[in-house]
From TrEMBL:
Keywords: ATP-binding, Kinase, Membrane, Nucleotide-binding, Phosphoprotein, Transferase, Transmembrane, Transmembrane helix, Two-component regulatory system. One of its GO terms (cellular component) is plasma membrane. It catalyses: ATP + protein L-histidine = ADP + protein N-phospho-L-histidine. Its main location: membrane. It is a multi-pass membrane protein. This is histidine kinase. One of its GO terms (molecular function) is ATP binding. The chain crosses the membrane at residues 12-35, 155-176.
Length: 449
């Protein structure tokens, strides 16, 4: 199973978002710790202040009760409708509850009668004592109230994270993609380099961190261009230099065949003639291939119709094509495209030769120029499999045929059509037929240079 890959932008977005979230959570946790200490000080201060303020009122109320001889109930300033945050009890030196708030229980608090703070399971209690030590006021604050305040404070710290996290993801992604755009530009520039485009990569507009990469790529392109030029020059020179001696040897062999009497010697001479013919065709294809790899497809706008007619007329002179070429329409309309005339002639000549060689003798080969610059060349042939149909564009790949050939024709055509900015479509069976082979050239109005 192939390992799934992630883009740098996605990795940086996820990483930076995770780091920001982690730091925010750490800051929120630290803030909650500080807030808990501050809340404890505030609540304890409120407890102590309430107890100290309540003590004189309690003592005064008790003294008035003793003077009047009748009981009076102290109205606590903290009484409110509903639950009180602070509850209190007034106890005597024996621990009995003399007075309490309406929310407090009649049972004494589980806290000693000593000045200061004391914690129980549910409350934090502050005890204030009178001067003579006979009266004690105990103010209790429930831990639930403090936890509720902490939870609300914590939500106040974490709630912005829920809102800002999606926004930060988009902001980080936008920033990362913008900062990484020079890398993407460099990737696209390198991706356009092939045998027909060896121009150096632009360095001046790149950040300093990427300039060494562009420099290395340019050095590699220079070495590769030199190697390809040497290879193309060798192939072109070899093919060109071989044409003359091969043609001379072929002519001498053909003359020798005519002069020899029928027999074994004449048969051997004919084999030599056949081999020399194959070598001549191979040298011609190698010369065309070297020109195709040199990137000759592009050019100035030119009318291709006369060139198409000229190549077809030239093909009709070959004995193999006698009476077999069916052209539609008979007179081609203008077809102006920015392509090289020689490159276009090489493309059409190879496709017509392939159609004649790889179809039954005497069968028709249809050549049609459709509107919008579509050229169809159709011949009779057995149906090719999809795998073979996709592979015959490669060099030295041939279909199931015994016809002479080198397996370079469609590779040359494919390369040149791509340089012309067009598309080579291979169909088997041909359109509208049960069998046959169709090569379709779709030429657009633009040319790749």
């Amino acid at each position: 199973m192939a390992k799934r890959s992630f883009s740098i932008t996605r990795r940086l977005t996820i990483t930076l978002t995770g780091i920001v979230t982690l730091f925010w959570l750490m800051a929120a946790g630290f803030g909650m710790m500080v807030m808990q200490d501050e809340f404890t000080e505030i609540f304890d201060s409120a407890l102590k202040e309430t107890g100290e303020r309540l003590m004189p009122l309690v003592v005064d109320d008790l003294l008035q009760q003793e003077a009047s001889g009748g009981p009076r109930r102290l109205e606590a300033p903290t009484i409110a409708h509903g639950e009180d945050y602070l509850i209190y009890q007034v106890r005597d030196s024996g621990g009995s509850v003399i007075l309490h708030s309406h929310d407090a229980t009649q049972a004494p608090f589980d806290a000693p009668l000593q000045q200061g703070f004391h914690d129980t399971g549910d409350y934090r209690i502050y005890t204030a004592a009178s001067v003579d030590g006979s009266i004690f006021v105990q103010i209790a604050d429930a831990f639930d109230h403090r936890r509720e305040a902490m939870i609300e404070g914590g939500f106040a710290l974490l709630l912005p994270l829920l809102i800002l996290l999606p926004a930060s993801i988009f902001a980080i992604r936008f920033t990362v993609r913008r900062l990484l755009s020079p890398i993407d530009d460099l990737r696209l520039a390198i991706g356009t380099k092939d045998g027909g485009n060896m121009a150096p990569v632009e360095r001046e507009t790149l950040p300093p961190e990427l300039q060494p990469i562009a420099h290395s790529v340019n050095l590699l392109l220079t070495r590769l261009r030199a190697a390809l030029d040497a290879e193309r020059e060798f192939a072109a020179n070899s093919a060109h230099e071989l044409r003359t001696p091969i043609a001379g040897a072929l002519a001498q062999t053909q003359r020798l065949v005519e002069e020899l009497p029928p027999g074994a010697l004449q048969g051997r001479a004919r084999q030599v003639e056949t081999s020399l013919g194959k070598l001549a065709r191979l040298s011609e294809k190698l010369l065309q291939l070297s020109r195709a790899e040199a990137g000759i497809g592009g050019g100035e706008p030119v009318d291709l119709s006369p060139i198409l007619s000229l190549v077809i007329e030239d093909a009709r002179r070959v004995p193999l094509a006698h009476g077999r070429l069916h052209v539609v329409p008979e007179t081609f309309p203008p077809l102006e495209r920015p392509v090289n005339s020689d490159a276009f002639a090489i493309v059409v000549r190879n496709l017509v030769e392939n159609a004649l060689l790889h179809s039954p003798p005497g069968s028709l080969v249809e050549i049609e120029l459709q509107p919008q610059g579509v050229i169809r060349i159709v011949n009779q042939a057995a149906v090719l499999g999809s795998e073979l149909l996709a592979g015959i564009r490669s060099r030295f790949i041939r279909g199931p045929t015994s016809a002479p050939g080198s397996g370079l024709g469609l590779a040359i055509v494919s390369s040149l059509v791509e340089q012309m900015g067009g598309e080579l479509q291979l169909l088997s069976p041909a359109e509208g037929r049960q069998d046959g082979f169709e090569a379709r050239i779709v030429l657009s109005g633009q040319t790749q240079r």
